[in-house]
Amino acid sequence: MTTYDADGITLHKVRDYVWEIPQEGGMRAPARVLASEALLDEISDDDTLQQIKNTTHLPGITKYAICMPDGHQGYGFPVGGVGALDAENGCISPGAVGYDINCGVRMMTTNLTYDDVKGKEEELVDSLFANVPSGLGGGGIVQGDAETVEQILARGVEWAVEEGYGVEDDLRACEDEGRRPDADPSAVSQKAKDRGRNQIGSLGSGNHFLEVQRVTDVFREDVGAAYGLEADQIVVLIHCGSRGLGHQVCNDYLRKIEKEHGDLLAQLPDKELAAAPAGSDLAEEYYGAMCAAINFAWVNRQLIMHRTRRVFERVFDRTWEQMEMELLYDVAHNIAKKETHSVDGEDRELYVHRKGATRAFPAGRPEVPAAYRDVGQPIIIPGSMGAGSYVLRGGEESMDLTFGSTAHGAGRLMSRTQAKQDYWGGDVQDDLEQQGVYVKAQSGATVAEEAPGVYKDVDEVVRVSDALGIGDKVARTFPVCNIKG
């Protein structure tokens, strides 16, 4: 059997692109890494392999813990990690969801072509930057009072549509129709609500962005048609999450779990994996708070999309309806949800944790919006500013191999600190402009942190996902202009 050794961890090749770390010691299941050898070389360059191995110590871990092709080191649980934990006898872990609850992406299609945008790139990027709030601090599209925050946490995108920030069709094109029914706003601390109330409708900072893109390739014409995608078309990609509110929810519950379930924490190799036992009061409270934060993030992206439609109306002097600016799909990649999966012939309810991983349900699943049920769920994989992004569909093998999941992006190769040492923001902007990509950011440091060279090869990540049948390649896009915090 072919093996791969990395700093004392030996992986056994199960088949092409599937590597397994066998169960040993306190591991409750094996761990699997889905990668080519080229990607494995990069994944093994930080603590990702040790972290995915640590994840298998969580009670109720089912089948195996999984690292996606874009995996890299995170806090406790690796980014690009999937862990399905038994919802009756297992646990739920805030660290396995991440601090930015429901960080995710949405793509909006248009009937504009690249020729329509040529010559207007600078006007467009300036107008988007001026009208879409971004950066570390406060300031959003809506200045919410206490009641507004409560409504958003409870109702998600339903609230936004009712308030005029969207249309009914937007709901139908959003994962879970933009609302988690298990949301419990009373489980969200006042401090978290206070952090969120002046950030409703804002990109934030870090790797979050809004990008106008052109479709360069359509690989599956039938699926592309179902998604409304064709070559040379202009689309808009929005990537952000639940801002300070989600971060505070995660932090609040990590501290509560440390105090109340120290016995379980003592069994885990990393305190960032802190988990509440399934059925405990804290597990229920965290799940309700996390679902409320999920709703907040969906509203955040909805408001930014609404504002983007208005900007396009001014720049192109026609209504957004005339430009057919329609939501293709919105999908989370930092989330845990109760889902029923078949395991060894038995249907089991699991907390499926996806941290830097995207749900990837195939055709026929009832959770997929009716418009896409015959072809499979859209998956949006952002790449870097210099390499483009992809649209995939949920693959037929995803339910068996990955609990219906695939990658969420290109995956980082280096830390933000290292990126700022290796790159200069102004140089990165100049290089991108030479490629026809216009970038505007709050600071040069942000651009340096997100330089194309700090990411893995998104083409390789997508190739592996497609080859495994967990996410099938549908279309590729390339940036036209990008704004970031």
Description:
With 485 residues, this protein is an alpha+beta fold. The chain has helices at 37-43, 48-55, 114-117, 121-131, 146-155, 157-162, 168-172, 190-197, 221-227, 243-260, 262-266, 281-316, 398-402, 416-422, 425-434, 444-449, 458-468, and strands at residues 3-6, 9-15, 18-21, 31-34, 65-72, 79-86, 91-92, 104-113, 209-218, 233-240, 276-277, 326-332, 334-343, 346-355, 358-359, 378-381, 389-394, 405-406, 438-441, 471-484. The strands form 4 sheets. It has an 8-stranded mixed beta sheet, sandwiched between helices. Strands 8, 9, 10, 12, 16, 17, 19 and 20 form an 8-stranded mixed beta sheet that branches. The model has no long low-confidence stretch (mean pLDDT 96).
Question: Which secondary structure elements does this structure contain, and how are they paired or packed?
Answer:
Elements: E1 3-6, E2 9-15, E3 18-21, E4 31-34, H1 37-43, H2 48-55, E5 65-72, E6 79-86, E7 91-92, E8 104-113, H3 114-117, H4 121-131, H5 146-155, H6 157-162, H7 168-172, H8 190-197, E9 209-218, H9 221-227, E10 233-240, H10 243-260, H11 262-266, E11 276-277, H12 281-316, E12 326-332, E13 334-343, E14 346-355, E15 358-359, E16 378-381, E17 389-394, H13 398-402, E18 405-406, H14 416-422, H15 425-434, E19 438-441, H16 444-449, H17 458-468, E20 471-484
Parallel strand pairs: 4-5, 19-20
Antiparallel strand pairs: 1-2, 2-3, 3-4, 5-6, 6-14, 7-11, 8-10, 8-12, 9-10, 9-20, 13-14, 15-18, 16-17, 17-20
